[in-house]
Amino acid sequence: MKPSQKSKPSPSQLFFVSIFILYMIVPIIATYIFSVATRWDRTILPEGYTLDGYREVMKNASFYITLQHSLILSVGSVLVSLIMVVPTAYWVHTKLPSAKPLLDLLMILPFGIPGVVLALALVQVYNFPPINRSPFLLTAATVVFTMPFMYRSVSNNLEAVDIPTLTEAAQSLGANITNVLMRVIIPSIFPGILSGSLLVFATVFAEFTLARLIVGAGFKTFPMLLVEYTRKDGTIAAGLSVISFTIAWIVSLLILWVSSKGLKTSHDVVRAR
């Protein structure tokens, strides 16, 4: 029998895919152009181009402080999410499968609770020092808010792998539960962990409502600075949006590159054995 050949996409499929790509890319390109435009309200293309907006932002000390705060908050949220979600999801899939429907239901709640309600509730309940209006409370809020992204990615990968068989095989060779989780399960579901981490990082880095209501000016983040410039100068605000998107894009590429190197190294070790 001849090997099956992949069918070529039809013109209608190419058309709809092209429309979707344009729908996603055009606003980003327009934002990039607007951030360097001198004036863009009377003609199809900008009347001129300048980098003065970027220069003004770079001179502002708040730019670097807020950028640092947002990076710390995003990375911290990813780490806390991994520590909480991965062992819990593994334990539920192997030891307590009856609790999985309840956990799936709990993961829907953050989508139904507005960020304003979540922030005000946390501020009212945890109103004692040193937690009240602190970065730690903000990190806890962002972890709850983004937990469905991490849990769904990890859970889907756990369902795609024969976790009980892998666990029993590793334990039969003398591995304890920590070694099973770190050396067997996590490498097996690493694509899901990576996807969840990217979603959490991107969401937290752009989060404004929780940061504004929980910490305010005490721990000013990058989106808060962007909103301030939105009221002052739309061009500079567009430049900040471009910087935010570019940073998230670069970090995503770095995570993908590091993870690919790690997977390649692990595969080489396995082959050497």
How would you describe this structure to a colleague?
- The chain is built from 13 helices and no strands.
- The chain has 273 residues and is an all-alpha fold.
- It has a single domain, classed as MetI-like fold (Orthogonal Bundle), CATH 1.10.3720.
- 26% of the residues are buried.
- The mean pLDDT is 83.
Range of helix content: over 70%
Briefly note the structural class of the backbone.
Answer: mainly alpha
CATH class: Mainly Alpha
Could you report the average pLDDT, rounded to the nearest whole number? 83
CATH architecture: Orthogonal Bundle
β-strand percent reads under 5%
Tally the helices: what do you get? 13
Query: What is the general shape?
Result: globular
Order of helices and strands: HHHHHHHHHHHHH
**How many domains in all?**
1
Largest β-sheet summary: none
Report the radius of gyration as a whole number of Å.
Answer: 23 Å
Write down the CATH topology. Answer: MetI-like fold
In whole angstroms, the N-to-C terminal distance is 37 Å
Low-confidence stretches: none
| CATH homologous superfamily classification | MetI-like
Total strand segments: 0
Topology at a glance:
Layout: H1 11-35, H2 52-59, H3 61-94, H4 100-106, H5 109-112, H6 115-125, H7 135-160, H8 163-172, H9 177-188, H10 190-205, H11 209-214, H12 222-232, H13 234-272
Helix pairs in contact: 1-13, 2-13, 3-7, 3-10, 3-12, 6-7, 7-10, 8-9, 10-13, 12-13
Please supply descriptive tags for the structure shown above.
about 270 residues; MetI-like fold; mainly alpha; about 0% strand
